[in-house]
Amino acid sequence: MKKLKRSARLVEMTQYLLNRPHTLISLTAFADRYQSAKSSISEDLAIIKEVFEEEGLGELHTLAGAAGGVKYTPKMQVEEARKIMERVCGQLEQPERVLPGGYLYMTDMLGQPGLLADIGRMFATAFASKEIDVIMTVETKGIPLAYATAASMNLPVVIVRRDNKVTEGSAVSINYVSGSNKRIQTMSLARRALKEQSRVLIIDDFMKAGGTIQGMMDLLHEFNAQVAGVGVFVESGELENEERLFEDYVSLAKLAAVDMKTKQTTIVLGNFFEGAKTGDQ
């Protein structure tokens, strides 16, 4: 790269960091890239660090020593997340979104790149202190959420299938009980998709009793993998004589009430916004 003026270097360096979250970048790499002294690079990074923290874009961590450098950790301030999710809750309360069984139509919202990026940053914020190797979801609507979260955490994505695909080779399959209709269903994961002992963050779009997520947890046992966390976009607050299969999860929104006759719903903020759930922020 040709030598840049400082103003241009700051812009390019900022973009470089934003595109490489959770990646350790040495001062030498920056110095070589911009043909500048390490002292100048350090001054630039100090400016970027200050702006990131003041604007709530995340944190820039500096690691000293020969193997040191800087690492960008994306985060979102609670108030910014609150404004975004309050707007989302208002959109989810539209009567035409109510589906049979107390579900919500959200596919159109999960196709908006800007919103997905924001959701990814929220989950990345919630689980910033966790040691995670991979993001897991089940096909199909959880896939964009998983990739958005993975982009903010610089992690790979593993997709659990409803049935085994020939193109994925041998797989581990289990039966699980759907929390909504109590039917026995099957999910599978290719043996090569996940390394044993992996620490896994499960991401899903909607959760009622949690049968599907519990199924993924059971599937992880077959790989000797560990559940590092569970994040859901919307949880249901009305379980109709059902019990939640697990309690340790982070939700961004909650379907607090739904009237199937009038199609009226009440969507409130999820437990991400409770003090006990936002300690990493």
TrEMBL record:
<dbReference type="Pfam" id="PF09182">
    <property type="entry name" value="PuR_N"/>
</dbReference>
<feature type="domain" description="Bacterial purine repressor N-terminal">
    <location>
        <begin position="5"/>
        <end position="74"/>
    </location>
</feature>
<protein>
    <submittedName>
        <fullName>Pur operon repressor</fullName>
    </submittedName>
</protein>
<keyword id="KW-0238">DNA-binding</keyword>
<comment type="similarity">
    <text>Belongs to the purine/pyrimidine phosphoribosyltransferase family. PurR subfamily.</text>
</comment>
<dbReference type="InterPro" id="IPR015265">
    <property type="entry name" value="PuR_N"/>
</dbReference>
<dbReference type="InterPro" id="IPR000836">
    <property type="entry name" value="PRTase_dom"/>
</dbReference>
<dbReference type="InterPro" id="IPR010078">
    <property type="entry name" value="PurR_Bsub"/>
</dbReference>
<keyword id="KW-0805">Transcription regulation</keyword>
<comment type="subunit">
    <text>Homodimer.</text>
</comment>
<feature type="domain" description="Phosphoribosyltransferase">
    <location>
        <begin position="110"/>
        <end position="243"/>
    </location>
</feature>
<dbReference type="InterPro" id="IPR050118">
    <property type="entry name" value="Pur/Pyrimidine_PRTase"/>
</dbReference>
<dbReference type="InterPro" id="IPR029057">
    <property type="entry name" value="PRTase-like"/>
</dbReference>
<dbReference type="InterPro" id="IPR036390">
    <property type="entry name" value="WH_DNA-bd_sf"/>
</dbReference>
<dbReference type="Pfam" id="PF00156">
    <property type="entry name" value="Pribosyltran"/>
</dbReference>
<dbReference type="InterPro" id="IPR036388">
    <property type="entry name" value="WH-like_DNA-bd_sf"/>
</dbReference>
<keyword id="KW-0804">Transcription</keyword>
